[in-house]
Design brief:
The chain is of the alpha/beta class. The protein has 2 domains: about 1-125 and about 300-325, Alpha-Beta Complex (Quinone Oxidoreductase, Chain A, domain 1), CATH 3.90.180; about 140-265, Rossmann fold (3-Layer(aba) Sandwich), CATH 3.40.50.720. Helix content is about 25%, strand content about 25%. It has helices spanning about 40-50, 120-135, 155-165, 180-185, 200-210, 225-230, 275-290, 310-315, and strands at about 1-5, 15-20, 30-40, 65, 70-75, 90, 100-105, 110, 145-150, 170-175, 190-195, 215-220, 235-240, 265, 300-305, 325. Helix 8 links the parallel strand 15 (about 300-305) and strand 16 (about 325). Helix 2 packs across helix 3 and helix 2 (about 120-135) packs across helix 7. The protein starts with a strand and ends with a strand.
Length: about 325
């Protein structure tokens, strides 16, 4: 079978397709025939060994890549957890090796896909939508009149967040970095779209809230953007850090939280889906939002496995948002 491996730590060019043996599922695992491997930011961090601390050895290569997957069950070894051969499933796992024609995964971590959610829609919205679901439901109630800031709103998760929050009645403030995507983000239902390449985020939020600030801010960008995000928080506002597409977060002095009783929180996906029941509950909520039209899948492009380097180049370039999908089957 074909699979994409990281030949050495480096840029997109280190991704190469190799022929390997189809893996065998061990007890408690399922063999999956892959359809799509959605390209995730985590794949970029793995390829570049981004989180290696000074003094630590570089990650050993070669290794196979992929975190998210959409596919069909080929064989189950052990407890089927109510699933069957031929069933369509989704998964998100560290070390999933999903950039391949086949992979194996723990059966208990597989999410059955409903007939009314096509494979491409699941690849574009289900797994990223699960992050959006956690953000919208774990920190404070989001409803009519809640002032919500979403950074990176042209991105995959940002777009889902803005759309879902707006459907709940929230007043959404969405940031972008280009006028090219303003109309796309407005279409999510965001009340205000702020182009932070030319507008002052803090001043714009103050202007539209009469100086009150936002109730909660979801920052998937990080880096220098966080300083402004933090200043947009109103009294008892919560800033939730969940991504670093723009760089690592600066340190927060706890004393700066006091004057407005602000809070800082964070999200790591796997902490909220430690049990199968939790995993399926979050997924079902996302599927419900998809059925209601609260979230809409957006696909930037679909590429074959052989073009994984191009997929990773696109992942780090600005443009119209949407999920990048690697097609694991011959088109």
């Amino acid at each position: 079978m074909r699979a994409v491996q990281v030949s050495k730590i480096g840029g997109p060019e280190v991704l190469e397709v190799v022929d390997v043996v189809v893996p065998e599922p061990r007890d408690g695992e399922t063999l999956i025939r892959m359809v799509y491997a959605p390209v995730a930011f985590n794949d970029y961090t793995e390829r570049t060994d981004l989180f290696r601390h000074p003094g630590e050895p570089e990650k050993q290569t070669p290794f196979f890549l992929g975190t998210e997957g959409i596919g069909v069950i080929e064989r189950i070894n052990g407890d089927a957890h109510g699933m069957a051969v031929g069933q369509r499933v989704a998964f998100v796992l560290h070390g999933a090796r999903s950039y391949a024609e086949y992979t194996v995964a723990p059966t208990e971590r597989l999410i059955p896909l409903p007939d009314d959610m096509p494979d491409d829609a699941a690849g574009a919205a289900l797994l990223s939508g699960m992050t959006a679901q956690m953000l919208l439901h774990q920190y404070r109630p989001i409803g009519s009149g809640t002032r919500v800031l979403v950074t990176g709103a042209a991105g995959v998760i940002g777009r889902l967040l803005a759309s879902w929050a707006a459907s709940l009645g929230a007043e959404v403030f969405a940031t972008v970095t280009s006028q090219e995507v303003v109309d796309d983000v407005k279409a999510t239902g965001a009340a205000y779209v702020i182009d932070i390449s030319s507008e002052d985020l803090v001043e714009e939020v103050k202007r539209h809230t009469n100086g009150k600030g936002v109730d909660i801010a979801f920052d998937g960008v990080g880096g220098d953007t966080w300083r402004d995000v933090f200043e947009t928080l109103g009294v008892r506002g919560i800033g939730v850090a969940y991504g670093i597409t723009g760089g690592l977060y600066p340190l927060v002095d706890p004393l700066t939280l006091v004057d407005r009783s602000r809070s800082v929180a964070s999200l790591l996906f796997f902490n909220f889906v430690e049990t199968r029941d939790d995993l399926l509950a979050v997924a079902e909520d996302v599927i419900g939002a998809y059925r209601r039209g609260a979230i809409k899948p957006a696909i930037r492009t679909v590429l074959p496995l052989e073009e994984a380097p191009e997929a990773h180049r696109l992942l780090r370039t600005r443009g119209r948002g949407g999920k990048i999908l690697l097609l694991a089957v011959d088109s």
